[in-house]
Amino acid sequence: MRTLRLALCQINPVVGDIEGNLQKILFYIDKAVAEQAEIIVFPELAMTGYNPEDLLFYPAFIRKAEDALDEIAKKVKDFVLVVGLPVKKDDLYNSAAIISNQSVIDFYHKIYLPNYSVFDEMRYFKPGSRTPVYEYDGVFFAVNICEDIFHPSLPGLIQAATGAELIINISASPFYAGKYQRKTRMLTTRAYDMGVYVCYLNMVGGQDETVFDGRSLVISPSGEILVRGKAFEEDFIVAEIDMEEVTRTRLREPKIRWEGDFEDREVIKIPLKRKKKTIPSLLKSGRKSIQIHEMTEEEEIFKALTTGLRDYVTKNGFKRVCLGLSGGIDSSFVALIAVEALGRDRVTGVFMPSRYTSRESREDVYELVKNLGIELIEISIDDLFDEYLKSLADTFKDQPQDVTEENIQSRIRGNILMALSNKFGWLVITTGNKSELSVGYATLYGDMAGGYAVIKDVYKTQVYRVAKWASLGRIPERVFTKPPSAELKPGQKDQDTLPPYEVLDKILYLNIEKCMGEDEIVEYGLDRETVKKVLNMVKRAEFKRRQAPLGIKVSPVSLGKDWRFPITNKFGG
């Protein structure tokens, strides 16, 4: 039997921490060598972290990554290693280094550079043009990078037609809910259509507003998933695959036999003999069991939010977070996420009641804090609010109270949270959701004040769903059932200003995710006046969104890099 042992190193690098990433890579190399891996694989831009953005404009940054590659090459002797990094040749490329015998055998340069959603790779890189295949002592494999495998022809089809039996795709593919299922269907189709093993290695961890979910895969030539890496966690996977399966599959189903001759076919021989393995062969899957836990959308979103918050706090050196607690669903849910991400000892809730705070809200805050086991600080805003009203009395003379006085209360709370942040070095995490931020139902320099917006990309109806799934009795039941309210004036309810959230979120989804205007949305059975009002609110709130903290992307179109609209905008839609 002609077998090959792969080691997939699903790591969580830190952008810019080239030395730290180097040490992590060296650690996993030693681990893979101990398992007698023949090909060891690391993700896209593993050396620098993804996405380095404008760090790539600095020659010293590129040189440091290349110096780290030299250090790695010294450790690579009787095996093959594939690792991602930026490489400067005639131009800058998003590359995979193929290393063996203490030297770089070749660089594969990414061909398809994504320039949509959170991606901006054409700003930094030149696309590659080569589609090489590597021969390693009778085993033919190819390497490509992330977006390359999303395309049904170049480069994968050329590599398979050139003789590749295994295609290794190194990736930094950001998460959004539902993407993994579609991506898995695509990858299994690629493996089946080309009659090859597909090794898909994805990065894991949070980087600013993006989260990488891992869940790396090894897929057989028949489209069967043999190995699946952990979700939202680092993982080390060793998989032994039967290369004769490719021959058997292609002879029986010769789907790529008629793909024609490509003039640019290139086979590079790696001058290395594969060592006979002395440890027992692994199961085909590389694990004792291949039972697969399929995540619900609620679990996926919750895992992404906890991963994003944990890595943002940890990678930026914060020891603690604080947040305002109101007794409502949003702040309760964010507190729960913070505890899951960081532990109860690193979370402080701040309760800032006013004359309009209900008894129920106070009770719910204290029950939540008890259930979560976090520290609580209570600071009343009433005296401060009175001082504001006195100071503005002459200026506001003869003017009725309106939203101005409501926003003053919110801004007092924002000031208190930022004072705690300045004094103790805590990160303020905000609690506004996607529904509110979309229509501007939030106070600039008030409840929008903070460093990280945890649920910025989660619609209100999703908040209820995911919080219910994750709560396990920790969020008081009444929080799920009472009408949402900002409690900034007597008897206030969100629905005094907004349509019911079920209606609002449907309109927002069709507008934001599906790019539909007023007439198209109305065709879905929604009231025209309501649609018109909501879309007008969305447009008018753009200036607020530009000043909101960054937050975690969990949808195809988040209100961050995915959403780029002019503030000055007269288009009616």
Automatic annotation (TrEMBL):
UniProt organism field: Thermodesulfovibrio aggregans
Protein name: Glutamine-dependent NAD(+) synthetase
GO BP, sorted A to Z: NAD+ biosynthetic process
EC number(s) on file: 6.3.5.1
GO cellular component terms, semicolon-separated: cytoplasm
Amino acids binding deamido-NAD(+): 407, 436, 544
Matching PANTHER family: GLUTAMINE-DEPENDENT NAD(+) SYNTHETASE, NH 3 /GLUTAMINE-DEPENDENT NAD + SYNTHETASE
Family membership noted in the UniProt record: Belongs to the NAD synthetase family. In the C-terminal section; belongs to the NAD synthetase family.
InterPro entries in the record: C-N_Hydrolase, C-N_Hydrolase_sf, Gln-dep_NAD_synthase, NAD/GMP_synthase, NAD_synthase, Rossmann-like_a/b/a_fold
Gene3D superfamilies linked to this entry: Carbon-nitrogen hydrolase, HUPs
